[in-house]
TrEMBL record:
Keywords: Ubiquinone biosynthesis. Residues 38-135 form the SCP2 domain. This is Ubiquinone biosynthesis accessory factor UbiT. Coiled coil: none annotated. Transmembrane segments: none annotated. It comes from the Bacteria.
Length: 172
């Protein structure tokens, strides 16, 4: 009985957390979210920018959709990152927040999520593969220690909740 209760509570939390997080995120103006994303990308990919590894993104728009957070945007690069609402992407990446958190924290491989149909990549396949490989090359050690610690703890908590709930995949 106690195990069933714990399992149900974990399922409920997995279902409610994105809904709760999407409310304040929805209030933040897009221009603020775009500015934060641009600065984060500039910082995390500074080495790749300096090495000229982002030339493939010039005049190419890559969309990111996080349905459970009701968040979507597209990104391009031409000496600096530009983030805008989705209009005309060449490739679109779509996944729920929990799966993206696990990828960012290095706890899940994007290829695994793709084959499990938890990460969807639509559009220009070659561009999608280049973006995926670029993202895998990001050195998370460039993030402040507090942010790395938070990502790690969130990912471990998410994995524990998924295990406790008996969920094999992200609940929506």
């Amino acid at each position: 009985m106690r195990g069933e209760l714990l399992s149900q509570m974990a399922k409920d939390l997995l279902n409610m957390a994105p809904k709760i997080a999407s409310k304040p995120l929805g209030i933040v103006p897009f221009v603020v979210k775009a500015k934060v994303l641009q600065q984060l990308l500039q910082h995390l990919l500074a080495e790749q920018i300096n090495d000229g590894e982002l030339d493939f993104l010039v005049e190419n728009w890559v969309a990111v959709e996080v349905p459970d957070l009701q968040l979507s945007f597209e990104v391009s690069f031409n000496e600096h990152f530009t983030v805008r609402p989705v209009t005309s992407p060449k490739v679109t990446f779509s996944a729920n927040s929990s799966d993206l958190l696990l990828v960012v924290a290095g706890k899940e491989d994007p290829d695994t999520l793709f084959f499990q149909r938890r990460l969807c990549i639509e559009g220009d396949t070659e561009l999608g593969l280049e973006v995926k490989n670029l993202l895998l090359a990001i050195d998370l050690q460039r993030l402040p220690v507090a942010v790395r610690t938070l990502l790690d703890k969130l990912a471990k908590s998410l994995l524990w909740l998924q295990t406790t709930s008996g969920a094999d995949v992200q609940l929506s």
